[in-house]
Design goal:
Blueprint: H1 7-18, E1 24-25, H2 26-33, H3 41-55, E2 58-61, E3 64-67, H4 69-78, H5 83-90, H6 107-122, H7 128-140, H8 144-171, H9 202-217, H10 223-236, H11 239-283, H12 288-307, H13 309-329
Antiparallel strand pairs: 1-3, 2-3
Amino acid sequence: MTTSKPYATLVRNAITELKERGGSSYQAIEKRIGDTGGPMSHTHIMRALKNGVEDGSIVSKGNKYKLSEKTKTSLKRSGTKTASSKKTSAKGRKKKDPNAPKRALSAYMYFAQAARPGIKEENPEASFGETGKLIAAAWANVTAKDKKKYEAQAAKDKLRWQEEKEEYEKTKPASVPGEKKEKGSGKRKKKDPNAPKRSLSAYMYFAQAARPGIVEENPELSFGGIGKAIAAAWKAIGSKDKKKYEALAAKDKIRYEKAKEAYAEKKKEVSGEEEAEEEEEEVAPVRKSKTHKTASIPSKTAKKGKKIEEEAEEEEAEEEEAEEEEEQRE
């Protein structure tokens, strides 16, 4: 039986209905949700709690969970939606088709399901995040031989997902009700490969430094989860520690402003040359040889731009990734 409600909503409703002043335990929340959660509810409830703690909609105290003041205020205003769900709808996130097949679980996730109860029993005081780190540490110590059991489960689940996905694609509707159309139905404006790379913020310099460590400590986190973890780490460091990254950002901003000015001047010069060429072609159209020679100038520029097009695309991808991380931080 598949639930019609997202687990974030089920968890929020369970905490609200339990009305426990000091917060509700995972066991109480799971019991409250009951069969409504459907199969694999344990994994999804834990994930919903973890995401709630990370985005600030849920507060974790030891092994107890309760709604944050921000969420309570949002509930009073809307009556139904949490702050996180309002944020999601405001950004127009693509709506998931409820009929789409459930994605396959990784070997790590199968291990986590099996190991979590024992780890929680041995470490009852551990918070949700700390429990996740303990599971990751336990996984790192599992031998290749012992991992085969979970890898076999993951491989079997992957085949199940691929088969279901294939069937789903055959019957998939042209559009999912409520799904937001992708921006820019026309061609996307191509970025000038010669334009200077935008300056990075202090937060982005910190993210570049912190990301490898966070990924290593939390291998189970998704891209969005890593972004939230980086944002949380940024909030946790003091203003003194932030100065290092603010100095890097200030230096990069000066670099960008200078490069931007030089780029604007160069663009102006190229534009002037092109106008002069057009005038010459209008005045003397019969001077084919000279016109052809002059016309080769912009083609050389285009050839040069083509050589560095791959670099420009890589930079654009980096900037898009940076924008996603900035959105996660906000």
